[in-house]
Amino acid sequence: MPRDHIQFVTGRLAEHSLRQIAEPLAREIGFDYAIDVLSITVAALMTPDWVARRIKLAPGATRILVPGYCTGDLTPIEQAVGIPVERGPRDLRGLPDFFGREPAPPDFGSYDIEIIAEINHCPRLALAYILAEARQLAADGADVIDVGCEPDGPWTGVAETVRALRDVGHRVSVDSLDPREIEPAVRAGAELVLSVNSSNRAAARDWGCEVVVVPDDPRTLAGLDETVDQLAAAGVRLRIDPVLEPIGFGFAGSLGRYLKVRERYPDAEIMMGIGNLTELTDADSAAVNVILLGSCQELGIRSVLTTQVINWARSSVRECDLGRRLVYHSIRHRVLPKHLEPRLVMLRDPAVTQPSGDELERLAHEIKDANYRVFVAGGEVHVVSSSLYLHDADPFILFEQLRQSGPDNGLPKNLDAAHAFYLGYEMCKAATAMTLAKQYTQDEALDWGFLTQPETRHYLKPQRHDEHKD
Q: 164-196, pLDDT tens digit by residue?
């Protein structure tokens, strides 16, 4: 097959950096390239119509790559050159990732672990609130909505709540040991009961639904075998939960019990209540959920029960939905669970690229306009503009330097209230990125995985007329 020949389109300021990145990329990946420097200082100000009027097709080019900030329909450029046109990354430093990252496997996204999401303390909640909460949990990936009861029952409103959830299409389980609550819940449509042990197993024979069997004493598994045997003999469908204990209260031993139960019951359905760890550990829940789901996938545990009560676990259902797909693919295909689901990497980024001091110094000499560019590099926040280069680890000190950088140590002419607000916002993002070792790109949202809130570009000014002249 002929080699790919990529024509990079850029502006004058980015030419030097683009050449430094494109040369080793072309050598490593194996493509030919040409760099088309159009008559504009800032490449981000290009529009497809503007590029289409000025681009000249390089001999042998097989596709065009325009900057990521060149937004809008690329058809005018394709019509002008007659070959495919693509939009690259907004930041040149993202080109290696743009070319080098393997796409997600075509079958990625499958799973076989069911998520049961509990709404705690339902007797205390209004029905409208329960329905709204269930709707959000289902949207986040919950397969079953668990109606959490309280130990001082029975709750007389359980049937109404289950029926209302069923009427809007939810699958429902009920979390109670009290037959006086369980029986009306089952009649109203609950398909699963959490939980059954020696205290209520006799009544469970008549419910006509699946149940979760728990031991009378989790530490010794006392009573588990007897309950399993009696319910199996009565034809009751069941799954087993040996009970996950919090750290400091037998966590490691409880993991061992899941191994023991799997060995004892190789074909049984098993459930793990992972909320016992995420809700009761001072740690962000996403990684904890993934580790527990990985254990479940390896042991053939096909259902998990989770909650979203404490603030650090408020997105557990969504985390579990992404995590179950990650561990399923990893174990099914015997590959590491790495570079497959970037939305679960939230606190820190997979990789960070930063400009060098020399690049920033050069940029300050080449920039002709008075707009401010903000960067993070070497543990400091940097501000670059025309003939201006300031940097400090403390944004307050940096802003004071900027404030005094005008003629005769006065306020720069363009540092009005709007600019000050904008720079303060961007410096705050930059300082956050610096603290957490995240990628900072001016006027773009920090990457918080699936929690990222997109931002609208604000900082670029309308270009002067002479910037658009050939």
A: 999 999 999 999 999 999 999 999 999 999 999
At the second CATH level, the architecture of 114-338 is Alpha-Beta Barrel (3.20)
**What is the pLDDT confidence band of residue 465, given thresholds at 50, 70 and 90?**
very low
Q: What are the residue boundaries of the structural domains of the chain, listed by start? A: 5-100, 114-338, 357-468
Instruction: Write down the architecture of domain 5-100 according to CATH.
Output: 3-Layer(aba) Sandwich (3.40)
Are 165 and 181 in contact, with CB atoms under 8 Å apart?
A: no
The Cβ-side half-sphere exposure at 151, using a 13 Å CA radius, reads 0
- C-alpha angle 112/317/309, rounded to 5°? 145
Statement: the pTM of the whole predicted model exceeds 0.85: no
Separation CA 452–CA 216 (nearest Å): 44
206: exposed, middle or buried (Cβ count in 10 Å: 0-12, 13-18, 19+): exposed
> What H or E segment, with its residue span, contains residue 109?
none
Instruction: Tell me the C-alpha to C-alpha distance, in Å, between residue 80 and each of 36, 51, 65, 95, 469.
Output: 15, 9, 14, 25, 19
Partners of 389 in beta bridges: 384
Residue 240, beta-bridge partner list: 213, 270
> Residue 302 has which token pair?
């096909």
Q: Give counts: helices (H), strands (E), the chain.
A: 16, 15
Read off the pLDDT band of 466 (50, 70, 90).
Answer: very low
pLDDT tens-place string over residues 306-328 = 999 999 999 999 999 999 999 99
